[in-house]
Design goal:
Length: about 110
């Protein structure tokens, strides 16, 4: 499996998410790309599943709440939500179909609600 890492060692990508651009094989059943904020929190996770039965073959989650540097609603720097988007043609379309909301944690950092 082809994996890319950045200088801080988090995973940046799994396989090739853009085979149409680079000319690589589209045979991979799954590929992913991750972008990070300066504080090493994941900002966006993008996925491609060409063999998925769902109509959304390429989609992404943009993390909200404490993972964004502008919003510090959670002082432990924990994920509090994520917005779902899917690629329609060449345009990313907002959809609340698979949004992640209502995350809450106990004082030990365990997820209590999802």
């Amino acid at each position: 499996m082809v994996k890319d890492y950045n200088v801080r060692h988090p995973c940046v990508s799994l396989l090739n998410i853009n085979p149409e651009i680079s000319g690589a094989s589209a045979a991979h059943r799954f590929s992913a790309r991750y972008t990070y904020l300066a504080n090493s929190n994941i900002h966006r996770a993008e996925y491609r599943q060409p063999s998925s039965p769902h109509s959304h073959k390429r989609y992404r989650y943009t993390h909200t709440g404490a993972c964004t540097e502008r919003s510090r609603s959670n002082n432990r720097n924990q994920l509090t939500g994520a917005n779902y988007n899917y690629l329609s043609g060449s345009t990313w379309t907002n959809s609340n179909e698979f949004d992640v909301t209502g995350l809450s944690y106990d004082r030990d950092g365990n997820i209590q609600a999802l």
